[in-house]
Write a structure and sequence with these properties.
By secondary structure, the chain is α/β, with parallel strands linked by helices. It is 34% helix and 22% strand.
């Protein structure tokens, strides 16, 4: 296991000691819809933790899904086969997956995006897709609370940083991916905290036109090989 992951691994090992679910039912349904996986093939849920996205896809017809993560306690929550692994050195042969899902994962490896994209490119079949979502570096909230400054929230894991869609696009196309596309959105958490209420009822309704990149916290993106 790479030393690069040591702080992240400790953080998620502790998270894995409790029941863990990362998406509300509303978000599970729309992420599933955006991925649009019809079945019939091999899926890799990379950095999948408790495997919630892999679980959704594994329900499709003739789908074989594998979830990898650095944290064994997190993988114990996964209902699909799990492998404890370094995402920068995947233990799979070339071109063996039809779909790779990186759900809220790339932003845990700041500065390693190109290496991660390259390793996924290696295991992805020709014509296969990489589907992902990450916190957007365009969003004002993310710049304030996720970057290295006095306002950074302690709830984030040690290496979490927002990601710029333009950066991913440039790196992906340089490697050989094609058809990069993304959409901005904000999650709808199950618990209606003050933070969630502000996002849902104030910021998201205002996220129109030029304000949208500044207010929507996440972006869903995909590329093809």
């Amino acid at each position: 296991m790479s030393n690069y992951y040591s702080k992240e691994k400790n953080f998620w090992d502790n998270k894995g000691e409790i029941a863990y679910q990362s998406l509300s039912v509303f978000d599970q349904n729309r992420i599933d819809s955006w991925i649009s996986w019809s079945g019939n093939g091999w899926v890799l849920d990379i950095g999948g933790g408790s495997g919630i996205v892999g679980r959704l896809l594994a329900e499709k017809q003739n789908t074989k899904c594998v979830c990898i993560d650095i944290s064994l306690p997190m993988l114990r929550h996964s209902t699909v086969p799990g492998v404890q692994s370094d995402a920068l050195a995947l233990p799979f042969r070339d071109e063996c997956f039809d779909l790779v899902v990186a759900a809220a994962f790339f932003h845990h490896l700041p500065g390693r995006e190109e290496q991660l994209l390259g390793e996924i490119f290696r295991v992805l079949k020709r014509g296969g897709r990489l589907i992902a979502y990450d916190p957007s570096a365009l969003c004002l909230q993310n710049r304030l609370f996720m970057t290295d400054n006095a306002f950074r929230l302690k709830t984030f894991s040690p290496d979490e940083r927002p990601v710029a869609p333009g950066l991913l696009r440039a790196k992906a196309l340089a490697i050989g991916y094609r058809e990069f596309g993304f959409r901005l959105f904000s999650f709808r958490n199950q618990r209606l905290t003050v933070f969630e209420a502000v996002q849902r009822y104030l910021l998201s309704p205002l996220a129109i036109g030029p304000l949208r990149p500044l207010l929507e916290r996440w972006f869903f993106w995909q590329v093809k090989k």
